[in-house]
Amino acid sequence: MRLLFLALVCMVALPLSAATVTAIKFEGLVHMSEVVARDMLPIKPGDELTDASVSAATKKFYGQGYFSDIWVTEAEGVLTFHFSEKPVISRIDTQGWKDGEDDDLDALLQIKKGSLYDEKRIEKSKQHIIKTLRDEGKIDSVVEVDVEHLDNGSVALTYKVREGEEIVIEKLDYSGMTVFEPSDFNDKVINKEAQFMGWFFGRNDGKMQVGQLEYDPLRVRDYYMQNGYLDAKVEKPFVRVDFDNYTSQMSYAITEGEIYTVENIYIYQEQEVTTEEKLRQQVKLKSGKPFNIQTFREDMDRLKNAVADLGYAYVDIRPDYKKNSEAKTVDVAYKILPGEKVHIRNVIISGNTNTLDRVIRRELYLGPGDLYNLTDLKDSRNALGRTGYFESTTVEEKRIDANSMDLIVKVKEAPTGTIQVGGGYGSYGGVLFSVAVSDMNIWGSGVNVGVNLERSQMTSNYSFNVSNRRLNDSDFSGNFSLYNSDVEYQDYTVTSQGLRAGVGYRFTRYLTGYLGYGYAANQYSDVNTSGILTNSMLFFEDYAKSSATVSLTYDSTDDYYLPREGISASESLEYAGLGGDADFIKSRTTFNYYYGLQQWIDMDWILRYKGRFYYIFNDTYAPYAERFFMGSLGSVRGYESYSISPYYIDEGGARRRVGGTKTFSNSAELSFPLMPSAKMRLTAFLDWGWIEGNTPDHMGLYRTPVKGETQTMTRASYGAAIEWFSPVGPVQLIFANPINAQTGDQTTHFEFTIGQRF
Known about the structure:
Strand content: over 45%
Number of domains: 6
Distance between the termini: 62 Å
Strand order of the largest sheet: 21-22-23-24-25-26-27-28-29-30-31-34-35-36-37-38
CATH topology of the largest domain: Porin
Number of helices: 11
Oligomer: single chain
Helix content: 10-25%
CATH superfamily of the largest domain: membrane protein fhac: a member of the omp85/tpsb transporter family
CATH class of the largest domain: Mainly Beta
Number of strands: 38
């Protein structure tokens, strides 16, 4: 109708008698240039002017979507096209839904700032919002759009959303299910039955997600097939909704069938690239065992990786299985089409405005002329992530021909040169403030230089360090540092001045060794001598420590600050007794495990486990300052630093901490996105640890414990941490609560730090 109206306007505007076009003019064009308009126009000067040609031209212009109105006038052979363009959308807001802060708002609305105002697109975006809300289980939603015409000619859109009511699944039945329990599907399906206290973390609130109803039956059937039930059928759920209170009951009709066992496993190679024996080593399905569809898929990936590691970058694995319904067996077949061997033609680095190319290339396990290897490609990407120099890294494969490819390494650099500020507060230590001026990739060379300043009511630490993880781009590393620290304990203060130096060597991609030397001069001051006999003062005498440290570190994680997979573990032994006064051997063991849940729940959740075990043995002389103390970040959060320790009660009734010779602590964490647009995550944690030590017999008079008695102290805490990749580095805001704190414990509920690995 719009086009018909325009055509009628054209007919009225033009004289009825035919005319010859002498010139063409355009008025009102903004988004389209006159050059483009003339190229599109089917009418040229010299043509005879007709109603049909004008109508065709008008329709063609209008079809571009830029114009709200078009009309044509003619005077003495001069044809003028008048355009009224659609206004530009300069602002988009939402009220009652997302509030304009969602990263994916443009995708959800299917319209964005800078586009032209179009009523049909606005209506389509309204319907898309309603559909999105319906998929989330919210029905009867209403969306209205306010259009504000601004003085500059643009428009501002405000989507006013009244979210509908959520449907809660009160009852979920699996009719026909006999071999499993309903709880077996809780971590498989999205729509679940509401549980008591469903609002609590880890419980099911039962809110229906309509968009997932068609996929949940497939998830249930897949679980059956993971257990060998290849004939299992799961019908679409039958849903009964009570619209008076917005509750529902759901039921699945299930036919289970019987378990199929694997009878034969066949591997066919279109051309033999390796022995069948080596390929069969990758297959985890076993003859005589129940068929598992998940293992079947994973076997396909393992076979692909094995062949791709031989240089066949474009290998194709075609899996298949054939059921024998009578015998309830299944034959499995993998057909391997390897293609041609592929070599790397070139490695192209991009995105590194600061980091030198050679610093990146030395972390890559593939270079020009090398045979393609899929494992090397993945390890290269992870090695770049472990440096901590980059916010993100990708390695793309650009096919050149059947036998060659280029690798495109794209990096986005992270802020490595920073002024890091950290702090916290506790009832014992007071306010802690720290400043670290450092650059872990100074001048893009991969060299780490830092100056650290930390001050609180109880501590002050100053240090300078320089290290190079790849000396002269080799597998050797080196470090050197100077430091001065003062730590005020309850009964004394220790001042330490020293230096450390060492050299490391990378034995494998993941395993690094280190040999270092350190010297420290330690002085005691402000010793509370109340209740301490003279023969006990030797533990508060100044001492020097000259020690050597040897360590092994294993790190297969995929990122420095936020690992999603891999293991980071270390073992170090420090021998103090190379001169000086201290004489002991100290062992430190750490183990961190990271596991991303993306492949299982399609969400960026990360499970973490962090453990450490420290032990002093051959303790000829281990001063108190060399012993172990628990509390705060790295051990048990919710307790102040150095506050958890074996102790004795002196004659005056004062508690004197003496440190431990053994300590173990571990943490379980679950991290998930909080505000992806701000690179902010929320982590729930549970910490637990113990520390063990005894009071030497020569301590003098005390009330408890008995001389030489071993004390073991156990503490735990829980809480949450906000992890934020801020412009100045990674920030952690930690909120912790001790579990069953004991009398005399020094607790804290908040602390923060910047620059540390999550």
